[in-house]
UniProtKB/TrEMBL annotation:
Protein name: Uncharacterized protein
TM spans (from-to): 33-57
Record keywords, A-Z: Endoplasmic reticulum, Lipid metabolism, Membrane, Transmembrane, Transmembrane helix
Provenance organism: Hirundo rustica rustica
Subcellular localization: Endoplasmic reticulum membrane
Membrane topology: Multi-pass membrane protein
One Gene Ontology biological process: lipid metabolic process
GO cellular component, one term: endoplasmic reticulum membrane
Length: 95
């Protein structure tokens, strides 16, 4: 009885290690691409929703008038010094 064909020898350990690393790298690359795609989709959706809200709910400036304040400066105030100015406006109702 003649012996059958011999099975192929097992691959060297370096090749099996390379195949395992290649699978892991491919999986990591796919996960990274999926994560980046998801992040870009979320960024686009958030910008779209923000723009839609801004356009729909915030009114455009209807009246623009220059405001000229006349102020006589006493010598106590110095040029280049920072000051805090508060303005209180009372607008009458049109109704």
């Amino acid at each position: 009885m003649a012996p059958g064909p011999l099975p192929p020898p097992p691959p060297p350990p370096l090749l099996t290690w390379g195949a395992q690393v290649g699978r892991g790298a491919r999986r990591a690359l796919l996960r990274g691409a999926l994560g980046l795609s998801l992040a870009l989709l979320l960024l686009w959706a958030s910008l779209f929703l923000y723009g839609s809200f801004y356009w729909a709910y915030l009114p455009a400036a209807a009246v623009l008038r220059p405001l000229h304040l006349a102020f006589r400066c006493p010598q106590v105030l110095l040029y280049g010094q920072l000051y805090r100015i508060s303005l209180e406006l009372e607008l009458r109702s049109l109704r």
